Amino acid sequence: LTIRLAAAEKAQQAALDQAKALNADKQPLATRLAAAEKEKQAVLEQVKALNADKQSLTIRLAAAEKTQQAALDQVKALNADKQSLSTRLAAVDKAPHGPANDAAAPKNEPPEMAAIVAAYRLQADKDNAQLRMKEDEIELLRTQLSVQSKTRSGESAAAKLSASGEQQAYAIGASMGSEALNVLTTRRTQGVTVDAGLVLQGIEDAFRGQLRLGEQERNKALFDVSQQVFQNLNKIEQKNISAGKKYQQAFARKKDVVFKEGVYSRVDYLGKGKISGNDLVTVVIKEMLTDGTVINDMEAKDQALTQKLDAYPPVFREPLKRLQNHGSVTLVVPPEKAYGSKGLPPKIPPGATMVYSVRIVDSQPEPAK
Questions:
Q1: 250-364 CATH, one of 3.30.360.10, 3.10.50.40, 1.10.1520.10, 4.10.280.10
Q2: Alpha carbons within 13 A on the beta-carbon side of 18
Q3: Mean pLDDT lowest among 102-111, 285-294, 310-319, 351-360
Q4: Where are the domains of the chain?
Q5: Is residue 360 classed exposed, middle or buried when 0-12, 13-18 and 19+ CB atoms within 10 A define those classes?
Q6: Angstrom distance (rounded) from CA 358 to CA 342
Q7: Of 328, 341, 334, nearest to 249 (Cα)?
Q8: With b meaning 16 or more CB within 10 Å and e meaning fewer, what string describes 339-358?
Q9: Which of 260, 252, 275 has its CA nearest to residue 326?
């Protein structure tokens, strides 16, 4: 029995030692299992993040493709406009015009007819300018599509512009881009066609420090375009002055037109209720070129101007004094009383005669102090 008991105790001790060894092996396995579970969770989160990125990129890609399609549709519409303008210009080219025909025109041609012809030719020039603008817009859109395509193909992550420094940098770039587009628009109105794609290329080259033209070549090119602009503006100014004088003469022959302080005015509606120089007068003004192009329409923008009648500039003050409350008047203002030889690019050309439709919205006595 003693021997059997000793053997049993020995077997029990061996079992305990084996259990202890198994427990010792179990601990690293448990640690490895926990690490594996943690790694698995990290992989799952990474997959989830990648799926989210994929979804975001898919949405952005769809938006970019939609934008590209809209731009292509715009190019198509611009091409249609270009074709329409080309047709109109072809019709104008067939019409009699030019110095030779002007000389051959009857000397006793009615002034109204001369004004109509002048307006017709001015409209032709305007159509021609619009055609050039459409061509430039098409070229600019094609350039933008090209840049967009390159950007999209090399894009790896969305630029969120969340940091203030990023927003400031982007705002500076956007401001510079807007200024560049304003210069292009102004040049078009000055009769200078500029390749928008090459302008963008020049900006990119300047940022990379890899300019294709030397300083002397660049200065010469800028001087040449300045000379061209100067010559074009002189021609445009003389043409506008001539057409404007004919318009003024035709307007002056209309009934009830008054010429005072260098401005033609005609009362369209007298109104009711006298106003004095100290009254607060609220007006809406519609500013136009002689061909009917609207430069600014305060009423359409839900805007109005209020000040004392005597505080209005002489161009408006004297005609307004002809009116009563709620009256309206049409003004024809020669260039020397309007924007002169400089104009107001890009909308108002040099030497432009301006037309104003002014209506008194209301007039109130000055409040007592």
A1: 3.10.50.40
A2: 6
A3: 102-111
A4: 30-155, 250-364
A5: buried
A6: 24
A7: 334
A8: beeebebbbbbbbbbbbbbb
A9: 275
Name residue 282's beta-bridge partners. 306, 362
For tokens 């106003």, the residue is: 275
Helix (H, G, I), strand (E, B) or coil at 226: helix
Q: Does this model's pTM top 0.85? A: no
Distances (CA, A) of 12 to 18, 19, 20: 10, 10, 12
Does residue 287 contact residue 294 with C-beta atoms inside 8 Å? yes
Closest CA relative to residue 245, chosen from 101, 118, 343, 106? 118
Phi and psi of 327, rounded to 5°?
Answer: -80, 170
- pLDDT tens, 20-77? 888 887 788 788 888 888 888 887 887 787 777 777 767 877 776 776 677 667 667 7
Q: Which of 279, 330, 332, 331 is nearest to 306 (CA)?
A: 279
Q: Is 257 helix (H, G, I), strand (E, B) or coil?
A: strand
Q: Per DSSP, what are the bridge partners of residue 289?
A: 354
- DSSP letter, residue 311: G
Say which residue the tokens 């020039």 belong to: 125
- The span from the CA of 193 to the CA of 133, in Å, is 8
Between 99-113, 134-148, 158-172, the lowest mean confidence (pLDDT) is in 99-113
Tens digits of residue pLDDT in 320-366: 999 999 999 999 999 999 999 999 988 899 999 999 999 999 999 98
The pLDDT value given to residue 154: 45
Q: Are 118 and 243 in contact (CB under 8 A)?
A: yes
